[in-house]
């Protein structure tokens, strides 16, 4: 009898504890208030000598989940924004400002995926001089074609400056995680915000002056530089990649080496070996791509230098990733499933404060950087505000050298 | 529920259902169990229409038992968007009530297999109309295969001092649902409900009742793509057309909820049998994404208030049944702002903020009157009418969107119980009903993001169109029944029924239903 009473008492205690546990949850729900619009103030800060006024700079609050975009001009040392719906915002400050001596600066500062839900909150944003890259991603085709065909992916890189540049020795990488996710890896705290990470690095070949890219010229790097519209590949493909300058050749005899120059494989899981993958496929949902240049005199060897390698500390996986110093990055573009995936950004806001997308996989569509002006020779001047949401046209039928950009003279089809 | 408790639960119900089969049906010779007699028997049961099992002893507690198998086929485009263009249903149900000494036990079991064909805008929840706004929708027409198991019981315990009666009611509902096209889902729903009750009878005419209600529900939804090469577009719904587009295979969602309620009843028994009943309940339900690393998606706080008036006026060879009901349901939809903790502590999803983003309100007024011309324990005629006033008012607070509508529905019905022959008590029960629904106002205004999404233009607007459409409905059924043999109460029946609803709109046309049933009353 005592045993039965004991069991009943335990049962009662469990029941009460379960009820009380849930009661606290229900109390939370009962105490939930109706949503109210909130007010916030942004205080930009800057460390450029003689620049004290932010007048003329533009501030944009973007809540990608709620599809809210609030754009204002800063008229003093701070700016107040009324009527915000509480949520996760990306805040970008950009524009030109002159210092006391009349010197003009292109400025940029951002907070990516910043939660704003407290009324009357003051937010500080550090504004720096905008890094304007001479080389930019001009067009990216990652989604693949109908019938689940992904070998026609390509990346077009454009000289958006007024000086010739050399591609030789530049690096290309798609960052890790390869697909946009809010479940991000954990990288070493000691790295701070100084690096981005990739599972595989490629390098442009050349002796230093072998592959020049003049102003208004672009080069195409294809996953597989063939005419994909041929019957043996995929007639539904949007693109013929046979005139690409470079390809990521993974020595797959079913998709043999093409006339395009092979990119040099640099790093995969701590080694320079390519491994056994049949192709270099980046996510058809959209990756986060960077091109970067190692400063002259600096040795960058992520295979030999273990300090340039790391594991994902969130898992027990032993896969090694290469560290890419953010300071080396010339251009970065992040692509994802759709607009709502901006909440799952992998790339630092200083490289790309936004995200571009085509909204589906295998739809034969890509993204292309917007043209904002034209050079005297008819080549385009492309938009680069470090925000691919704004800088790219989305869902375009892919094409090489859009807007009359030129083919470099060393392209194999010209020789 | 652990296995022992579940077994006990099923045992109690099984006793209720099957005891009459095991007992000697010759004990009561002045009864018959024709379909009209069972219907009349249930019309007279006034406490059985409440959640108070303690009051069952005040009803007629003659034993009865029945089972029924039926097949229904429904089709037509006059439907809510998430219903199927065509649906078929296979039902098997059994029910029984029995008095064992001073105990009365009632039990019910039903199994329903429901095939919904070409349904739209639901990819993650078995019943999209159950008051949970947070689920996944897609725009691929798809079939759903659902199965529902429902076990219920009511126990009326022996009276204490002839003044106090105690009762206990319970339900166990389990549903399985599977969407058949990518993005597809496999869902498991469970609800277990208990309603302890008490009735105090200070004298023979006045009875006061009270009951408590608790239920727990859980639904698991696991979405996936079978064709993993093709990512599907889907929408995470937040109410009134607000949604977030997604691409891939969807998500896993875990719905858990608890409901707490209580009610009071007053019954006067004399020349008339009057029952007033009022129940109030408060339900909390959470929708969380992922089972391994839960993320708060949304919660609902639902309040339901149900008031009833039931009046039975027996007369010389006739009876009057008056019925009134007022139901009010209010739901607050709570949304969360969450962020994944990607630091080394890896504490999963952190909820940063929550607020009520949407409210849903429904009011339903129902009035009914039935008259029967009685013959023994059956009726020869039943004539009745029902009037309903429905009012819905849903609001998404910021940015403000709303959906308001008011409908009036009136129905008249008549049943003729033809006494074909007293030999084997052969009966033909013919039922004809007609109804008209009139919309008396409504508006759906959407001011949220992406007004071009099909969630706004097809799902919400389509649902609004359906709910505000004037329509006429006509139903007819015929039930033939006879006893198995003269010395037995067992009464087999065969029923055929048809229903036709015609919408007064060009874009919605009709919906019809055809049904066949076969069963036996014991």
Describe this structure in words.
- The complex is a heterodimer of chains A (415) and B (522).
- In chain A, the strands form 5 sheets. In chain A, strands 11, 12, 17, 18, 19, 20, 21 and 22 form an 8-stranded mixed sheet that branches.
- Chain A contains 2 helices and 26 strands.
- The relative contact order of chain A is 0.15.
- Chain A has 415 residues and is mainly beta.
- Chain A has helices at residues 2-30, 388-391; strands at 38-46, 58-63, 68-73, 79-84, 87-98, 104-116, 121-129, 135-141, 154-159, 165-166, 171-175, 195-203, 212-213, 218-222, 246-247, 261-262, 264-268, 288-292, 309-310, 321-325, 329-336, 356-357, 366-369, 371-374, 380-382, 392-396.
- Chain B is mainly β.
- Chain B is globular, with a radius of gyration of 25 Å.
- The longest helix of chain B has 20 residues, at 3-22.
- Chain B has one domain (3-394, 436-468).
- The two termini of chain B are 33 Å apart.
- Chain B has helices at 3-22, 35-44, 454-467, and strands at 64-75, 86-100, 103-119, 136-137, 142-156, 164-179, 184-200, 206-224, 232-239, 242-248, 252-269, 273-289, 295-314, 318-341, 348-375, 378-396, 401-421, 426-445, 471-483, 491-503, 510-521.
- Chain B has an 18-stranded antiparallel barrel.
- Classes of the chains: A mainly beta (415), B mainly beta (522).
Total helices of chain B: the number is 3
Q: Which chains make the largest contact?
A: A-B, 42 and 35 residues
Report the uncertain regions of chain B.
22-29
The total of beta strands of chain A comes to 26
Relative strand content of chain B: over 45%
- The H/E string of chain A reads HEEEEEEEEEEEEEEEEEEEEEEEEEHE
What percent strand of chain A? 25-35%
Task: Profile the largest sheet of chain B.
Answer: 18 strands, antiparallel, barrel
Helix fraction bin of chain B: under 10%
How many domains of chain B? The number is 1
Distance between the termini of chain A: 98 Å
What is the overall shape of chain B?
globular
- Give the class of chain B from helix and strand content and strand pairing: mainly beta
Oligomeric state = heterodimer
Low-confidence spans of chain A: pLDDT under 50, at least 5 residues?
A: none
Topology as H/E string of chain B?
HHEEEEEEEEEEEEEEEEEEHEEE
Helix content of chain A: under 10%
Mean of all residue-level pLDDT scores of chain B = 92
């Amino acid at each position: 009898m005592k045993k039965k009473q004991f069991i009943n008492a335990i049962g009662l205690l469990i029941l009460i504890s379960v009820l009380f546990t849930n009661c606290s949850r229900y109390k939370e729900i009962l105490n939930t208030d109706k949503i109210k619009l909130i007010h916030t103030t942004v205080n930009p800060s800057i460390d450029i000598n003689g620049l004290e006024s932010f007048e003329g700079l533009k501030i944009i609050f973007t809540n990608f989940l709620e599809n809210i975009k609030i754009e204002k001009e800063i008229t003093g040392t701070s700016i107040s924004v009324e009527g915000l719906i509480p949520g996760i915002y990306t805040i970008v400050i950009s524009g030109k400002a002159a210092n006391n001596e009349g010197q003009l600066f292109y400025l940029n500062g951002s907070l990516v995926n910043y939660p704003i839900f407290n009324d009357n909150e003051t937010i500080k944003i550090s504004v720096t001089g905008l890094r304007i890259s001479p080389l930019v991603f001009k067009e990216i085709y990652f989604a693949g074609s109908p019938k689940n065909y992904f070998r026609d992916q390509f990346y077009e890189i454009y000289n958006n400056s007024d000086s010739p540049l050399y591609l030789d020795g530049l690096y290309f990488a798609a960052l890790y995680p390869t697909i946009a996710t809010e479940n991000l890896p954990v990288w070493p705290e000691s790295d701070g915000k100084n690096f981005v990470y990739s599972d595989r690095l490629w390098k442009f070949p050349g002796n230093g002056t072998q592959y020049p890219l003049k102003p208004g010229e672009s080069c195409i790097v294809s996953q597989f530089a063939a005419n994909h519209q041929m019957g043996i590949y995929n007639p539904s493909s949007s693109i013929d990649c046979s005139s690409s300058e470079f390809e990521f050749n993974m020595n797959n005899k079913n998709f043999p080496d093409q006339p395009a120059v092979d990119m040099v494989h640099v790093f995969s899981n701590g080694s320079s070996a390519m491994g056994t993958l049949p192709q270099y496929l980046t996510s058809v949902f959209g990756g986060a791509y960077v091109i970067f240049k190692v400063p002259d005199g600096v040795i960058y060897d992520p295979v030999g230098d273990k300090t340039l390698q790391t594991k994902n500390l969130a898992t027990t996986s032993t896969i090694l990733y290469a560290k890419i110093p953010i300071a080396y990055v010339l251009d970065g573009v992040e692509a994802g499933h759709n607009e709502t995936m901006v909440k799952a950004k992998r790339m630092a806001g200083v490289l790309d404060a936004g995200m571009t997308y085509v909204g589906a996989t295998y739809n034969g569509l890509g993204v292309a950087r917007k043209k904002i002006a034209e050079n005297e020779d008819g080549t385009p001047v492309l938009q680069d505000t470090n925000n691919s949401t704004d800088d790219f046209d989305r869902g375009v039928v892919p094409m090489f050298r859009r807007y009359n950009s030129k083919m470099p003279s060393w392209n194999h089809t010209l020789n | 529920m652990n296995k022992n408790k579940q077994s006990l639960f099923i045992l109690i119900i099984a006793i209720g259902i099957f005891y009459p089969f095991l007992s000697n049906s010759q004990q009561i010779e002045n009864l018959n169990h024709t379909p009209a007699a069972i219907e009349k028997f249930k019309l007279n049961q006034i406490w059985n229409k409440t959640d108070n099992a303690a009051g069952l002893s005040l009803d007629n507690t003659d034993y009865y038992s029945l089972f029924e198998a039926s097949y229904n086929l429904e089709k037509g485009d006059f439907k809510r968007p998430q219903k199927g263009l065509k649906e078929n249903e296979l039902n098997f149900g059994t029910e029984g009530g029995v008095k064992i000494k001073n105990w009365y036990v009632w039990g019910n079991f039903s199994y329903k297999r429901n095939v919904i064909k070409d349904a739209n805008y639901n990819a993650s929840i078995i019943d999209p109309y159950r008051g949970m706004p947070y689920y996944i929708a897609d725009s691929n027409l798809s079939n759903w295969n659902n199965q529902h198991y429902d076990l219920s019981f009511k126990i009326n315990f022996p009276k204490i001092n002839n003044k106090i009666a105690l009762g206990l009611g319970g339900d166990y509902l389990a549903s399985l649902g599977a969407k058949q096209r990518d993005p597809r889902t496999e869902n498991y729903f469970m609800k277990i409900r208990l309603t302890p009750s008490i009735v105090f009878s200070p004298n023979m005419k006045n009875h006061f009742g009270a009951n408590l209600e608790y239920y727990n529900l859980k639904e698991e939804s696991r979405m996936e793509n079978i064709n993993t090469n093709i990512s599907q577009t889907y929408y995470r719904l937040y109410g009134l057309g607000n949604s977030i587009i997604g691409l891939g295979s969807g998500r896993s969602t875990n719905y858990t909820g608890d409901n707490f309620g209580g009610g009071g009843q007053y019954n006067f028994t004399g020349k008339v049998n009057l029952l007033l009943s009022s129940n109030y309940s408060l339900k909390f339900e959470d929708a969380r994404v992922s089972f391994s690393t839960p993320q708060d998606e949304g919660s609902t706080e639902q309040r339901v208030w149900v008031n009833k008036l039931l009046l039975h006026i027996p007369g010389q060879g006739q009876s009057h049944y008056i019925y009134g009901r007022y139901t009010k349901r209010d739901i607050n939809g709570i949304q969360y702002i969450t962020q994944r903790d990607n630091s080394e502590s890896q504490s999963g999803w952190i909820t940063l903020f929550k607020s009520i983003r949407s409210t849903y309100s429904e009011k339903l007024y129902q009035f009914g009157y039935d008259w029967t011309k009685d013959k023994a324990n059956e009726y020869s005629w039943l004539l009745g009418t029902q009037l309903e006033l429905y009012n819905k008012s849903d609001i998404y607070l910021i940015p403000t969107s709303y959906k308001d509508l008011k409908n009036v529905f009136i129905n008249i019905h008549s049943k003729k119980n033809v006494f074909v022959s007293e030999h084997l008590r052969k009966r033909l029960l013919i039922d004809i009903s007609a109804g008209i629904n009139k919309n008396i106002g409504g508006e759906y205004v959407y001011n949220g993001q992406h007004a071009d999404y099909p969630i706004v233009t097809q799902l919400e607007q389509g649902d609004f169109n359906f709910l505000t459409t004037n329509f006429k409905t006509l139903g007819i059924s015929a039930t033939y029944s006879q006893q198995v043999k003269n010395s037995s109460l067992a009464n087999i029946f065969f029923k055929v029924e048809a229903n036709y609803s015609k919408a007064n709109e060009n874009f919605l046309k009709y919906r019809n239903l055809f049904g066949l049933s076969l069963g036996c009353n014991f």
